[in-house]
Amino acid sequence: MGAPLGLIAxxxxxxxxAIGLRAAKKEPVVVVTFDKESYERLLALKADMAQVNxxxxxxxSKIIKIFHQAGVAQVAFAGKVDKRVLYxxxxxxxxxxxxxxxxxxxxxxxIMRSIVQELESEGMxxxxxxxxxxxxxxxRGKLAxxxxxxxxxxxxxxxxxxxxxIAALDIGQTVVVKNGAVVAVEAIEGTDEAIARGGKIAKExxxxxxxxxxxxxLRFDVPTxxxxxxxxxxxxxxxxxxxxxxxxxxxxxxETIRLCDLHKIAFVAV
Length: 270
Fold this sequence. Notes:
The chain has helices spanning 14-24, 36-43, 60-70, 94-102, 108-121, 129-132, 150-168, 191-202, 227-236, 253-262, and strands spanning 5-9, 29-33, 50-54, 74-78, 125-126, 141-142, 174-178, 181-185, 207-210, 224-225, 240-243, 249-250, 266-269.
């Protein structure tokens, strides 16, 4: 049996998928997660090869100690960690404070690269998230039954360009557009709330575009969509979802496409 993988698990379905992939290969995984709901969900998997730990988001020293004690040599990230916690006065240990101090500016990439640097300084390599979940990233093409109408296709082409520009500034990776206008841009609040804001303005027929950053670090924060994304779109009457082919992960692909077809949402990878 090889060394266990260290998994830093956020919210969503990706952590359970990662544990399932390791379990299928009879490979051990040591998980740290940050909220009780995620902890209980991962414990409920009852994966024999998985050790699940609940820690505070700011307990960097404890996380590294857990990984060292288990003999972890490689670490992977899976799931979303809500960055808004940085503004809610969480308790950070001295090591976490040093990691944050080193991150300049305080955007997603800088903070994540500072965390990666700290792990690597402890002899732990951080592996590519996209390689771990390669089967989840579809190539170019129509993914759901309905193809975009001519006006929607024009918004897809416009929106993908706008999303790339926003992503290059490390603001977010999603824009909501309608009739050639950007009605919402994702920031720290995340994709679902950006869709809700955009839909409130656009009413029905909004187009949601999600891309990778021009210099995307594949070790963390690979763009992801799934059933939650589609459900957010359904709530506001959005009509089309466009993602960047080969660089965006679709969690629970079959159910995501089923929901798109049920609600007549066009879904394309471009």
